[in-house]
Amino acid sequence: MRLLEHQSKDLLSGFGLSFTQSIVVDSAEAARAAVEGLAGPAVLKAQVPFGGRGKAGAVLFVEDEHGAEEAAAQLIGKEIRGVKIETISVEPRLTFERELYLGITWDTSAKMPVALLSAAGGVEVESAHGSMARRTFDPNYGLRAYEGREMAAEIGLSGKVLIGVGHSLEKLSQAFLALDAITAEINPLVVTEGSTLIGLDAHLEIDDDAAYRQQTRLAPLGEIVSTSAGRPPTPLEIEAQRIDALDHRGVAGRVVEFDGDLGLLIGGGGASLTVFDAIQRHGGNPANYCEVGGNPTEEKVAALTQLLLSKPGVRKLAVIMNVVNNTRADVMARGVLDGVRAAGLNPAEAISVFRIPGSWEQEARDLLAAAGVEALGREVSLDACAKLAVERMSIHAA
Amino acid sequence: MLLDPGAGILVQGITGREAAAMVEDMLAYAAESGGSRIVAGVTPGKGGQQVHGVPVFDTVAEAVAQHNPTVSVVSVPAPAVLDAALEAIAHGIKLCLIMTERVPRLDTSRVLSAARGAGCTVIGPNTLGLIRPGIAKLGTIGGRVDNVRRSFAPGRVAVLSRSGGMTTEIASFLTSHGIGQSIAVGVGGDPIVGADFTDLIDLLEEDAATDAVVIYGEPGGTAEERLSERLQKKPSRLRINAFLSGRFVDDLEGVRFGHAAVMVEGGRGSVRGKTAALREAGVFVADAFDDILEGLPA
Fold first, then answer.
1. Which residue of A274, A322, B49, B165 has the fewest CB atoms within a 10 Å radius of its CB?
2. B121-to-A370, B76, B85, B93, B114 alpha-carbon distances in Å
3. Which residues make up the CATH 3.30.470.20 domain(s) of chain A?
4. Which residues make beta-bridge pairs with A378?
5. Beta-carbon separation of A381 and B265 below 8 A
6. CATH number belonging to domain B1-127
7. Which residues does chain B have within 8 Å of residue A140's beta carbon, measured at their own beta carbons?
8. Tens of pLDDT along A225-276?
């Protein structure tokens, strides 16, 4: 899950890292009052869970409280990338000598955390890989301060700044490990007059799979706005999540909505990706992506089937899985048949293909035959099955 | 080679519901093939019990002292994986397969750090397991023994896959075309896993029983890119065919699909990029799934 800027700064401050003062407000009046209190030029930043805010017009610079009120009114309630701005952070504008980028993330090739340091901080850091120092470190100990100083020397830093950056990287690595972070960034970390280091912006993403042990740290932050960097979920996707959560056994959800006419009930994870590609390659238009696997209950499968068939414009459902290992084909067949009937449709017409070879295949075959649906076996490959599903759309449309 | 036919297997978390079903299938396959078998299980606090005739111990130390397993299958809840895997590594287990899903990334990284120091090969997390057809299987791969027999056949092609389900699908497809497998490994669906394509190809390079490899890749992570770099530096004697799914994910930056690793971010991890890198390194990348048979020895 990706945290908001002010939440990230709150957490990182607990590890001895320094940031500019931040006053979080949700109205133009409160923004005005905040800038009055600061008695100087300020910056107003929308609290939204993704980067590139400056380019999206969600960071505004103001000279005084009048400007602040106007800018805040402009920002609050506005939508960027599908997310409504609810709160903004009001911060004093600092003068500084230079900007640095500090980041820690996972190196999936080395399979270790990696610290990054760039002399080109600010918004252009992604295009400045040339002057980037990087070093993987032991996930048990974190990055040592001396390693941070070596990185600082590598990008040409010296004196008090070199020492300060070494300490900052050590603390950021400690925070990264303690918080189960996927990414921890301070960008920019600015060098002010007198070589003091202070963070202007921070970004934390926490491992969803470790959320269970971060509750005491995350709970005080209030609502976590979004877990995905993509668009916000559609009502159909939210309903699919609810269905999947009905029972912990197996997965029957992870729906992503598309605007086609062929509903897909597909799985497991890899086969879902394979089938979706194949449907498109054969000229079909999927209404959704989804994933089924791990032997979900009949009830979950039925509810998901009904949901996918209820989407306006969906004419048929293709049920395709890889040769199943632990999912039972007969349980899937019962769930699908129940869901189709609950949607008020005839299985023989609504199911374009049904292919779930493997465990309990014969039992599934018999159930489907009784409903007038022919089950396909492993001799029809995933690709051939996708092609058949697409062909059957046009036959019946004609 | 992974999973020596004579190796004794330990199951950690053996008294769990899913583990018990897995043990039954593994025992049935071992009885048929005569290969590596489960010699002991561990569940702290349940020492003295039996699961399908397999003795259960409180600690790995006791299980090792009495039955000398060198392979462990870890099937414990995600919060217990780090502890269980470190216990296995500390007592000399040389192949540790972690089936559990949703293991925190930090824990995986700590397990791998300990495993590197001890010379232990880790497969997973988030894997259905591996199989050497006709010899032995680890994990739930293939499911019931009748399905395993239909899907996998002994032969000279290795299958390496980031998806457990696709491991069986590919093997079954090869089997139905008369092509047997020397080994099939689900490497795990997480962004960070133990042995990846590169590590396994390094092992297979030395395996006289393997002539070719079929790889199944997905968007996200760097496993395919890492393999391409390795092949550019040191070409392989093995025929390598790859199939990559999730082409549509390339156009959906930041949206997560299924396996935790499957996401294209900041232009990285795209199927387009992986395909180009693998082709540059001399790998045959199939456009359609059915083309994975191209040039494989029967």
1. B49
2. 49, 18, 11, 9, 11
3. 98-221
4. none
5. no
6. 3.40.50.720
7. 110, 113
8. 544 546 778 899 999 999 998 888 888 888 999 999 999 999 988 999 999 9
